[in-house]
Write a structure and sequence with these properties.
With 335 residues, the protein is an alpha/beta fold. The protein folds into 2 domains: 3-178 and 232-256, NAD(P)-binding Rossmann-like Domain (Rossmann fold), CATH 3.40.50.720; 187-229 and 261-298 and 315-333, UDP-galactose 4-epimerase, domain 1 (Alpha-Beta Complex). It has helices at residues 12-23, 60-70, 91-112, 146-165, 187-200, 235-247, 264-274, 303-309, 317-333; strands at 3-7, 27-32, 50-54, 74-77, 117-123, 169-174, 177-178, 216-217, 220-223, 229-230, 233-234, 253-256, 262-263, 283-285. The strands form 4 sheets. It has a 7-stranded parallel beta sheet, with helices on both faces. A 3-stranded mixed beta sheet has the order 8-9-14, covered by helices on one side. A two-stranded parallel sheet has the order 7-11. Helix 4 (146-165) links the parallel strand 5 (117-123) and strand 6 (169-174). Helix 1 (12-23) crosses helix 6 (235-247) and helix 2 packs parallel to helix 3. The structure holds NADP nicotinamide-adenine-dinucleotide phosphate. Residues 7-8, 10-14, 32-33, 35-36, 56-58, 78-82, 97, 101, 121, 123, 174, 176-177, 183 line the site of NADP nicotinamide-adenine-dinucleotide phosphate (NAP).
């Protein structure tokens, strides 16, 4: 039975990757922080097939210890301060975790088990304000926020360790992917939660946004730039791509996305029409949520992953949005 170590197991992708790997008979070791919230109920259906251990990307020794003890064949580095919008407020922390944290992990693997295969979670945010549309593995990076700059740092280190030490580190340049397990401060969760609240007539929500105000206030949801375009896929489809990258004979970089860009307005339209409502009655623009510098238009050219790994997304945009709204409706109704 192969062993996989996952950093960031308590996040969205950690959830789907764990499910995927356990379905392939892996022993999964999940690294979580002392401060991580209790996710035992999220993973209950997977029984006792996961070993949770404490560790932190800020602490090289905690990762080295985990690798020494569990001797994983594969390490998936999903841990990150993953919210680009927050990365101006948490600029140094983002660099420490998202950039240097990955570097610390590469060093821990190099010293303890250099034959271990590593997946590094790179991001389409690295393309920032791109010079070509759609973007592929050869598109130059042009990061527009501290999160994206930190991901570029980690991505470059992955390439350097690959070349300098012959380590197997594959980078998945993933475009936005969403699901009911997405963090609540991400735009797609705000919108789908807002649509569910609107359907149920909730005018002031219990859930708070990143500035500590009700996500739905007086029946309205405050967002930033509605014309921004993103390539949104379903997180469950993307876990398989991560695994496929580590099964390939050589380490490489792969762009993963759907190839279809939509505006935030279109996302709002899909979420509110799922519950039979007009989004324009519920969404407002608040300058506090407009990024100082915008990203995009980012849209994936995932033809390399399709050709070499045989990967392609299977869940439609409409189904993914519907799944997220449904999840909020069910949770709100059960309260
Ligand atoms: P997520 O839900 O925000 O999860 C982030 C995870 O990182 C959480 O488990 C968090 O643990 C952990 N973490 C944060 N700081 C840490 C530290 N110092 N030490 C150890 N763990 C730490 O993110 P996601 O959506 O699953 O994304 C997974 C990865 O893919 C991230 O690196 C993200 O930047 C990248 N990515 C995501 C997307 C996307 O659209 N989702 C697109 C491209 C790339 P706690 O529970 O303790 O907070």
């Amino acid at each position: 039975m192969p062993t996989a170590l996952i950093t960031g197991i308590t996040g969205q992708d950690g959830y789907y990757l764990t499910e995927f790997l356990i379905g392939r008979n892996y022993h999964v070791v999940g690294l979580r922080r002392k401060t991580s919230s209790d996710h035992s109920s999220t993973f209950r259906h997977l029984g006792n097939k996961i070993d949770f251990i404490y560790g932190d990307l800020l602490d090289t020794f905690s990762m080295a210890e985990a690798i020494k003890k569990h001797q994983p064949e594969e390490v998936y580095n999903l841990a990150s301060q993953s919210y680009p919008g927050e990365s101006w407020r948490l600029a140094i922390e983002t660099g420490e975790i998202t950039g240097l944290g990955a570097h610390r992990l590469f060093e821990a693997v190099r010293h303890v088990k250099p034959d271990c295969r590593i997946y590094q979670a790179s991001s389409s945010e690295m393309f920032g304000d791109p010079q070509q549309v759609p973007q592929n593995e050869n598109t130059p990076f042009n990061p527009m926020n501290p999160y994206a700059a930190s991901k570029v740092y980690a991505h470059n280190l992955a390439r350097i360790y690959r070349k300098s030490y012959g380590m197997f580190i594959s980078c998945g340049i993933l475009f936005n992917h969403e699901s009911p397990h997405r963090g609540m401060h991400f735009l797609t969760q705000k919108v789908t939660y807002g649509a569910a609240c609107a359907k149920l007539g909730i005018k002031n929500s219990a859930a708070l946004n990143e500035v500590g105000e009700p996500m739905v206030k007086d029946g309205k949801i405050a967002l930033g730039n509605l014309d921004s375009k993103r390539d949104w896929g379903y997180a469950g489809d993307y876990a398989e791509a991560m695994w496929l990258m580590l099964q390939h004979q050589q380490s490489d970089d792969f762009v993963i996305g759907t190839g279809q860009a939509r505006t935030i307005k279109q996302f709002c339209e899909a979420a509110f029409s799922f519950v039979g409502l007009d989004w324009q009655n519920y969404i407002t623009v608040d300058q506090r949520f407009v990024r100082p510098t915008e990203t995009g238009p980012t849209v994936a050219d995932a033809s390399k992953a399709n050709k070499i790994l045989g990967w392609k997304p299977t869940t439609s945009f409409t189904d993914m949005v519907g799944m997220m709204v449904d999840n909020h409706l069910n949770k709100l109704k059960s309260k």
